[in-house]
Amino acid sequence: MSKTKNKILDVSRALFNEFGYSQVTIRMIALKLEMSSGNLNYHFKKREEILEALYFEMVSVFDERIVALPKTELSLLQVKNDIEQSMNRMVVYKFIWTDLFNILRANDKIHTHFYKVHKNRLAGSLFLFNVLCSKAVMKPASFQKEYDVLAEQFINFGNTWIYTSELYHKIYTDTYIKNQVESMLGLLYPYLTQKGLEEFKRIVPNWFDD
Mind listing the domains of the chain with CATH numbers? Predict the structure, then answer.
């Protein structure tokens, strides 16, 4: 990708994050870049092409991570680190997550990819739970759909934490991200074995401070 295209994407992302995708026009982006709308249209014919480029730029890392999951050495610490990396990347593209419903409804290409990946994420979560069960970190499911439900909860938290954060906080400090990471990881807490609880206490010690 050319330097000009990368610059357009960087400026567009900053404007979308600040004002919201629906409030930013091609003209606003061009003015910020100090170029004509016609020059910008040479690189991206419409605003939706910028949106798609930013979306697929963001999810490329997520998609690679799902593919690599079977070869990853899994532990609660690895899960925690993975959540943290994902959340930090999501903040960089926060406009997508604060307006996800409208973006999915308006853009067929993103909609198709998002729901295809949703199925992969569910499968990836179940794979993770099975591995942690095999390592005696998580308990075996007590009923058939138990971990299916947990996988949905896990993914829903990941999809909506930024939207909720925008309602109340809007300041993504390292401490705030850390708290969100631990909250998401904490969804696994009721399902941990004694071994898993000991590992959890090592990597989230502040939950157990007197």
Answer: 1-45 (1.10.10.60), 55-208 (1.10.357.10)
